[in-house]
Amino acid sequence: MSDSTIELKGSGFTLSVLHLQSSNVAETCQALADKIKQAPQFFKMAPIVINIEKLDGAIIDFTELKQKLADLDVVPVGISGATDKQKSVIKAAGLACLNEAKSPTNKQSSDGPTQVRYERVEVPVEVKVPSYTPSKILRQNLRSGQQIYAKDSDLVIIGMVSNGAEVIADGSIHIYGQLRGRAIAGASGDESARIFCHKLEAELVSINGNYWTSEQLQDSVWGKAGYITLDGDSLSATELEI
Amino acid sequence: MAQIIVVTSGKGGVGKTTSSAAIGTGLALKGFKTVIIDFDIGLRNLDLIMGVERRVVYDFVNLINGDSNITQTLIKDKRVEGLYILPASQTRDKDALTREGVEKVLNDLSEKFDYIICDSPAGIEQGALMALYFADEAIVVTNPEVSSVRDSDRILGILASKSRRSEQGLEPVKEHLLLTRYNPSRVEKGEMLSVEDVSEILAVKLIGVIPESQAVLKASNIGEPVILDEQSDAGQAYLDTIERLLGNKVDYRFLSEEKKGIFKRLFGG
Ligand SMILES: Nc1ncnc2c1ncn2[C@@H]1O[C@H](COP(=O)(O)OP(=O)(O)OP(=O)(O)O)[C@@H](O)[C@H]1O
Ligand SMILES: [Mg+2]
């Protein structure tokens, strides 16, 4: 919406994460204060995320934590690794709850009761926020030689897709009829896209570039109602039964 | 205003010209003023099957170019009242069929006829595209084998996307499936697709099943459309097709192998 005064967009930043190992707030903040003394410039008004995964759901005094961090001149951006119970307490204390993007961090063994550990978590710089685009819906048979592309959306076909026809979508593909041609879902990189169809006899199915030809489909749900999903980099076909 | 029907298939040699001749003649027999146009420029065929090849003076391309007028160019059939043939040119190439030219001829004919039957050439090029572009209805001629079915599917896609009706967002071209050269015993042996198989793959309403028949060859040798051979299986199957085209319900015949006599069935054979 270019004519509005603000614009909301998703972005990723690299932040320091403080991993709490103990529910003793005073003790933790003392350890942090010691750390800050070693590099005061680095921490001056630094945004920081507090990860409380190690607390195993224990409720601590988040208001006190927030206050103590402010006293140390660091800015708590929010809390990550919280359980649902902890989240309501965190929000009541006026802190944000964050979901950390999964990254294979080397989980060090905690070798002390009050360890403060820092790490830099790399998050992708531009995160595309999925904006809602209505599905492309067609009520027709797609014949040999015809091609349909649903950009940024799902594709719904009430009809069949013949041998030699090709249907492509950036999202998922739903076919309420036979699929005998080619169906290419997640064409711009969505690995969660799926292909559903009423009767699966496809020449080719593909999700995010991973494909199966009819040969590989033969021994799964051939001729039946089914759907195709992508798991890692391998496709799987499941019968549609309710 | 005439109803324009294209007889088309994609694949060659499946029976388009045989069917155009039979269907055009059948409609004229029913009392409709009918003209059959040969769109197969360079490979004249319709005039042979209709037995008028020795009476061709002017042709479709002459008419388009204004070298001749409708009265001079149309050939009147001597057997059936109200039946005319517009032959293809044998000397020109298919680029002579321009959209404007074809449209003008069809508009002129439309004022004088009830039905215009367009016998399409094989393939999906200019001639075939021109034959189907102005159609109100399409009879898709298909043989019960995989490659013919595939090509029919392609043509159905073109009808749905490249015809005048689709381009102008009008009611779509009415599609009919005509299965020809159907051989029930080969179907039973699994050597050919069945009526059910083809109907299921193409998802188009069936209008007729013409059996593989000696009568077709015989008819084309004497230059008489097979529908005039009322005793033959193929002739009767085309007569049934005309009834269905006119909206009447007729049971299908010639779908199974000829019944063996009771003795043969009892004692084998
Ligand atoms: N029902 C039938 N039984 C037996 N032979 C048939 C039948 N229908 C057509 N044929 C034969 O098949 C051949 C091709 O028929 P026809 O010329 O009608 O096909 P076409 O589709 O018009 O071909 P083209 O694509 O070359 O224009 C001819 O020899 C014809 O006699
Ligand atoms: Mg022909």
TrEMBL record, chain A:
Q: Where is the signal peptide?
A: none
The highest taxon in the source lineage is Bacteria
Q: In its keyword annotation, does this UniProt entry include rRNA processing? A: no
- Listed InterPro entries: CAP/MinC_C, MinC, MinC_C_sf, MinC_N, Septum_form_inhib_MinC_C
Q: Which controlled-vocabulary keywords does the entry list?
A: Cell cycle, Cell division, Septation
Family to which the UniProt record says this protein belongs: Belongs to the MinC family.
Outline the extent of the Septum formation inhibitor MinC N-terminal domain: 6-76
Function according to Swiss-Prot or TrEMBL: Cell division inhibitor that blocks the formation of polar Z ring septums. Rapidly oscillates between the poles of the cell to destabilize FtsZ filaments that have formed before they mature into polar Z rings. Prevents FtsZ polymerization.
Would you tell me the protein name for this molecule? Probable septum site-determining protein MinC
UniProt domain Septum formation inhibitor MinC C-terminal: residue ranges: 137-235
Which Gene3D superfamilies does this entry report, sorted A to Z?
2.160.20.70, 3.30.70.260
What Pfam families does UniProt report for this protein, alphabetically? MinC_C (PF03775), MinC_N (PF05209)
Could you describe the subunit structure of this protein? Answer: Interacts with MinD and FtsZ.
Extract one GO BP annotation from the record.
Answer: regulation of cell septum assembly
TrEMBL record, chain B:
Highest taxon above the source species: Bacteria
- GO BP: any one term: division septum assembly
> Which terms in the Gene Ontology molecular function aspect does this entry carry?
ATP binding; ATP hydrolysis activity
- Pfam families the record matches: AAA_31
Per the record, what is one GO cellular component? cytoplasmic side of plasma membrane
The UniProt keywords, alphabetically, are: ATP-binding, Cell cycle, Cell division, Nucleotide-binding, Septation
Using the record's annotation, list all stretches that form the AAA domain: 3-153
SUPFAM superfamilies on file? P-loop containing nucleoside triphosphate hydrolases
Q: Sorted alphabetically, which InterPro entries does this protein's record hold? A: AAA_dom, MinD, MinD_FleN, P-loop_NTPase, ParA/MinD_ATPase
Matching entries from PANTHER family are given as: SEPTUM SITE-DETERMINING PROTEIN MIND HOMOLOG, CHLOROPLASTIC (PTHR43384:SF6), SEPTUM SITE-DETERMINING PROTEIN MIND HOMOLOG, CHLOROPLASTIC-RELATED (PTHR43384)
Its quaternary organisation is:
Interacts with MinC and FtsZ.
What this chain does, per the entry, is described as:
ATPase required for the correct placement of the division site. Cell division inhibitors MinC and MinD act in concert to form an inhibitor capable of blocking formation of the polar Z ring septums. Rapidly oscillates between the poles of the cell to destabilize FtsZ filaments that have formed before they mature into polar Z rings.
Its family remark reads: Belongs to the ParA family. MinD subfamily.
Q: Which protein, by its recorded name, is this?
A: Septum site-determining protein MinD
In its UniProt entry, the species of origin is given as: Catenovulum maritimum
